[in-house]
Amino acid sequence: MKTEIVTIRKLDPPESVSDKLSYAGEIIRQGGLVAFPTETVYGLGGDALNPESSRKIYAAKGRPSDNPLIVHIADMAHLDRIVCEIPEKAQKLADAFWPGPLTMIFRKAAGVPYQTTGGLDTVAVRMPSHPLANLFIQKAGGYVAAPSANLSGKPSPTLARYVVQDMDGRIDMIIDADGVEIGLESTIVDVTCDVPVILRPGYITQQMLSSVVGEIDMDVTIYDSDCAHPPKAPGMKYRHYAPKGELVIVEGEPQEVVRYINEQTALHESAGKRTGIIGTQEMMAQYHASSVKDAGSRGDPKTIARCLYTFLREFDDEDIAYIYAESFGGICEDQGFGQAVMNRLLKAAGHRVIHV
Ligand code: AMP
Ligand code: MG
């Protein structure tokens, strides 16, 4: 298949942007697939109400078909058609955080095909805030099923060139716009129960959600890799975001962490293996490896969120065999955005953590 790559830049005239998105929307209406930018990561879109489109999405990504897709909408009035009911708390959360990086799980209406929901009676819905995503969804008919636009198992794409790397020749069109803003996937909250449950942490934190609707639970499997239950978001059970090299997270006193990481990289480098490090700005000057990545200041999880997946892909391009990451200390225990960053890092590392 020939993949058309359409470039849209910030200063393009609105009529030209609108024409390009109309064309992209038409591809979706005809049952085709288009990758598009959102504020979280690039999405791989198809018509959510067309079972054949969902089947194509799974095939293009190589994604297991029990891992359901998120349906993207651009208008609150469109929600009624795809869900059985809108619980009061869901309405409040939508008022507070839509459009934005929040996905909610509802009981699905009959019109949503099981191919889109991975066989579940529930449907995940999000209203993105990215203006291009918004207009594209409207032009596509209002309901765009879209997982992240990467091959299954690879880091989600935060830049169009990574979408091209993974999807060229597999889908009809890629919209190449500027880089995304947040860099991590949306927060997923199940609103089908009395107390809403976070199934995947993200930019919208537990505290932000609680401030609107009170008590919020957290799926126990998010941080407990040995938990006996499967996660409630089927996709969370798969290894994700994995770089080709072996990634290890190193925890401990900052100076000890630096000492341990440098010792390990020296060992591997002397054996002819290329090594990489993800560290905080404060420690940068002290590290030695083939590739050292600056994740920004320790206190600012937003910077690391924005660059984490890019770093993982760069390590692949640089042929790095062993990667060491600081643990972004303690931010895992706070209830904030750092928790979401740490969740992704742990998954990328296959939960390999070393305490020094
Ligand atoms: P991605 O599209 O790559 O961001 O992944 C979507 C995530 O949403 C996966 O972890 C899915 O398992 C999860 N998800 C989608 N629909 C549902 C649903 N109905 N119930 C629970 N989790 C869902
Ligand atoms: Mg994904």
Describe this structure as you would to a colleague.
This protein is of the alpha/beta class. Helix content is about 30%, strand content about 20%. It has ten helices and 16 strands. Strand 9 and strand 10 (about 195-200) form a beta hairpin. Bound molecules: adenosine monophosphate and magnesium ion (MG). Adenosine monophosphate binds next to strand 6 and strand 10.
Strand content: 15-25%
Give the names of the bound compounds: adenosine monophosphate, magnesium ion
Q: How can the largest sheet be summarized?
A: 11 strands, mixed
| Widest beta sheet: strand line-up | 1-8-2-3-7-4-6-5-9-10-11
**Number of DSSP strand runs:** 16
Helix content: 25-40%
Q: List the helices and strands in order.
A: EHEEHEHEHEHEHEEEHEEHEEHEHE
| Distance between the ends | 50 Å
Coarse structural class: alpha/beta
Unreliable spans are none
Tally of DSSP helical segments: 10
Rg from alpha-carbon coordinates: 20 Å
What's the rounded overall pLDDT mean?
Answer: 93
Shape: globular
Keywords:
five-stranded parallel β-sheet, binds adenosine monophosphate, single chain, globular, alpha/beta, 356 residues, binds magnesium ion
Short description:
With 356 residues, this protein is α/β, with parallel strands linked by helices. Helices cover 31% and strands 18% of the residues. Bound molecules: adenosine monophosphate and magnesium ion (MG).
What is the strand and helix layout of this fold?
Elements: E1 4-7, H1 14-29, E2 34-36, E3 43-47, H2 51-61, E4 70-72, H3 88-97, E5 102-107, H4 114-117, E6 122-126, H5 131-139, E7 144-145, H6 160-167, E8 173-176, E9 187-190, E10 197-200, H7 206-213, E11 217-218, E12 246-251, H8 254-270, E13 275-279, E14 291-294, H9 301-317, E15 322-326, H10 337-348, E16 353-355
Parallel strand pairs: 1-8, 2-8, 4-6, 5-9, 10-11, 12-15, 12-16, 13-14, 13-15
Antiparallel strand pairs: 2-3, 3-7, 4-7, 5-6, 9-10
Helix pairs in contact: 1-5, 9-10
Bound molecules: adenosine monophosphate and magnesium ion.
